[in-house]
Design a protein that fits this description.
about 725 residues, 29 strands, about 20% strand, single chain, Alpha-Beta Plaits, alpha/beta, 4 domains
């Protein structure tokens, strides 16, 4: 007859069996009992459905082709899918049954199944969670009960037992067999302490002795209990004991003479493991398994206290990986994560016992070296770290070469507090980055002043954005054939009120680190569009503008809307704008980046690759993205006059671009020899000192005022660089 269990009315059940008749039989049976049933005719289909939907219960056949029931349970375990499982299978071997139960199966039913047995098992499984709540309520009632029968709940998910006056078992429910594999008869008459693992024996004896006192009340304690047969798992239980009381004819409590104590042992193994995992997660980095920032600071604080008491020294190292971002952007975050794991393993081989290595965040690591005898000890470890990091990393099919920048802060010379030592190690590391990377530096006070200047520059930059202190200069770009002006490259400068005129190389790094580059890019794009639009109206109607975009800008979700809004508000024609991006952005293989670029291209905006050939890349992206133009870096152009063998790089880039029907811009053209060579190869656009340095837009207009632009004239893409790190020429 249909079930009447309202608590399970919304339960969802997934049936998995490769036998269609079995599936249909199970479905009809369970739907007769008003269960909500879904089916999967194979292990793979079950995995797909478990991945996309939540089910309360899975009825699973073990023997299926390709993906077996064991594979499904492995998938569920590995992906933390907490659906309760009942195995319904013809496989009856001990290995199959034990393996299924070991992987978390709630029960095992043999085919052909008995309908009544199956529906009862299903109903019990669905009700298990609600039973836990019901059981807690039952315990409260039992505490107030005067009747012995309320303490005996054989179907409880917990072990329920009664002890005699000597602490020996006089009753156990059937859960002792389920949870610890003991036959009930084997424990009757045995003292409760025989069930406790040796590690908790003293705690248990104290607990048991105390509970024997009359009117002691319920006293819970966490104990590790021994299973009947040894296994590798720890069985943690919360054990509660309470004297059993009755009342005499006057209504006063009295201790029963036959039974003295009842108890409950609740299996909390999963809870203990979960708490241990949460505790580990709170103080460790899950990717590398290293201590995290919080644990590192705790240990550093303790080490400083110890060093103060013992008058010893210690060191803090700040380790930042060089070129990691290139790897991450080029090969993807999965490869980047694997590389970080490899790096953490190598770093651990470089340190002493008692040192603390932590992942501080991203590609940054910190290292605590307590109890140092001399600063040279820290230097030796830093040198060892650098040597290890320089060695080739093999991640998947890729050979990866990176480096590291290491900053060292010594206690007490570099500071006597936790935050000061970390900050000064970071400053020393940044000094290494600034002076060429791949090395180490010990902090000194001169570095502190440099850090202060960097902070001051960032603060000035915020003010400069509001005060419109940034100015754009333009460098002409000409068609290689005919040397006719077809555009300009706009280059930004900062008219600093105290430091004077600053080139991009003096402030762009700070702008990108602080993300102020986004505001600078926006302001520069707007101003450049406004100024070039005036040129369109004053005799240069096809003059084209392209914008070099900072990767920080592209990462923003509203990046495309920002660009299109600026063009619309300034009434700038999109087909005369080209956006210049780096190879690494395309190599990140991210769909959101592809979608953004495709949306821009759909609006008529052109895309160009800046400094093509200088990055870590493959060429497949050239066909995957709407790229119109390749720009040859000045370092390649410069080799034309000096080294004949290097010139072939320029040949190859131009030939490839022509084959892909892309335009070519060559920058850094400084003499006629280079121009003639580029022209002979079919290069479209050139720029450089040969045609003029960066200048005011009015100067560009005056210099080329004699040229006339016609709508049908060949157009090519020009570069405006609001976010470029390229210095003005």
């Amino acid at each position: 007859m249909p079930r009447t269990d309202d608590a399970a009315a919304d339960a969802r059940i997934l049936l998995t069996d490769d036998d269609p008749r079995m599936l249909e039989s199970l479905r009809m049976l369970l739907e007769l009992y008003n269960y909500k049933v879904d089916t999967a005719a194979s292990g793979q289909i079950a995995i797909d459905k478990l991945s996309n939907k939540q089910y309360d219960l899975l009825l699973l056949d073990l023997k299926m082709p390709e993906i077996t029931g064991h594979d499904v349970m492995n998938f569920m375990s590995n992906n933390n899918i907490n659906t309760m499982t009942i195995v319904v299978s013809g496989e009856t071997s001990i290995n199959d049954i034990s393996n299924a139960l070991r992987h978390g199966a709630y029960d095992y039913i043999k085919k052909p199944y008995i309908p009544e047995e199956l529906t009862a098992t299903v109903n019990n499984a669905i009700r298990k969670k609600t039973l836990e709540k019901s059981h807690r309520e039952m315990q409260e009632r039992l505490n107030r009960s005067e009747q012995l029968h309320r303490f005996i709940v054989n179907n409880s998910p917990d072990i329920i037992f009664i002890l005699d006056r000597n602490g020996n078992f006089s009753f156990l429910n059937s859960q002792i067999e389920t949870l610890l594999n003991y036959p009930k008869q084997a424990l009757l008459g045995c003292h409760i302490s025989t069930l406790v693992e040796e590690v908790d024996r003293d705690k248990a004896n104290f607990f048991f002795d105390n509970i024997n006192q009359p009117h002691a009340g319920i006293q819970p304690v966490e104990l590790t209990l021994k299973p009947f047969t040894n296994d590798s798992h720890k069985h943690h239980f919360a054990v509660s004991l309470s004297p059993i009381e009755d009342v005499d004819k006057n209504g006063k409590p009295t201790i029963l003479q036959r039974y003295r104590t009842y108890g409950i042992a609740r299996d909390i193994s999963e809870q203990v493991e979960a708490e241990a995992f949460i505790n580990f997660q709170a103080y460790h980095d899950l990717l590398t398994r290293l201590p995290n920032r919080s644990l590192f600071k705790d240990r550093l604080s303790m080490a400083i206290t110890q060093a103060q008491c013992q008058s010893t020294a210690l060191a803090v190292m700040f380790i930042d990986l060089d070129r990691f971002k290139v790897v991450n952007d080029s090969l993807g975050h999965t490869m980047g994560d694997k590389l970080l794991q490899e790096v953490s393993q190598r770093l651990q081989t470089c340190i002493r016992k008692g040192d603390t290595l932590s992942r501080f965040g991203g590609d940054e690591f910190t290292l605590l070296l307590p109890d140092l005898k001399h600063s040279d000890d820290a230097v030796q470890i830093a040198e060892k770290i650098l040597q290890e990091i320089k060695k080739t990393f093999v991640v998947g099919e890729h050979e990866i070469h990176i480096g590291a920048s290491v900053g060292i802060a010594l206690y007490p010379e570099s500071g006597d507090s936790m935050d000061t030592l970390i900050k000064h190690a970071d400053i020393a590391m940044f000094r290494v980055k600034k002076t060429g990377k791949d090395g180490y530096q010990i902090f000194n006070n001169n570095m502190h002043s440099e850090s202060t200047e960097r902070l001051s520059l960032e603060q000035d930059m915020r003010r400069a954005i509001d005060n419109d202190e940034f100015e754009i200069c333009y460098q002409p770009q000409l068609e290689a054939v005919g040397e006719t002006l077809c555009g300009v490259e706009a280059l930004i400068r900062w008219n600093h009120p105290r430091l004077g005129r600053l080139t991009p190389g003096e402030f762009i790094a700070v702008a990108e680190d602080s993300h102020l580059i986004v505001d600078i890019d926006r302001l520069t794009l707007r101003k450049a569009c406004r100024e070039i639009l005036l040129c369109h109206r004053n005799g240069f109607p096809t003059l084209r503008l392209a914008v070099n975009l900072s990767p920080v800008m592209i990462e923003k979700k509203d990046f495309v809307d920002d660009i299109l809004t600026t063009l619309r508000e300034e009434q700038y024609p999109p087909h005369l704008l080209e956006l210049e991006i780096t190879e690494n952005i395309l190599m990140s293989d991210r769909q959101d980046v592809a979608d953004k670029l495709l949306r821009l291209a759909s609006e008529g905006i052109h895309l160009a690759i800046d400094d093509f050939g200088t990055g870590y890349s493959s060429l497949s992206y050239l066909q995957d993205f709407p790229v119109n133009t390749l720009k040859i870096d000045r370092s390649f152009v410069n080799t034309i006059k000096n080294r004949e063998d290097e010139a072939c790089i320029v040949d190859a880039i131009i030939a490839m671009a022509k084959g892909l029907k892309m335009s070519i811009i060559a920058e850094g053209v400084e003499n006629r020899e280079q121009l003639d060579y580029l022209r002979s190869l079919g290069c479209d656009i050139v720029q450089g000192f040969l045609f003029g340095k960066a200048m005011q837009l009015t100067s560009v207009s005056d210099l080329f005022a004699h040229q006339k632009f016609a709508p049908g004239k060949q157009e090519l893409d020009l570069l405006v660089s609001p976010g470029t790190v390229e210095q003005l020429q």
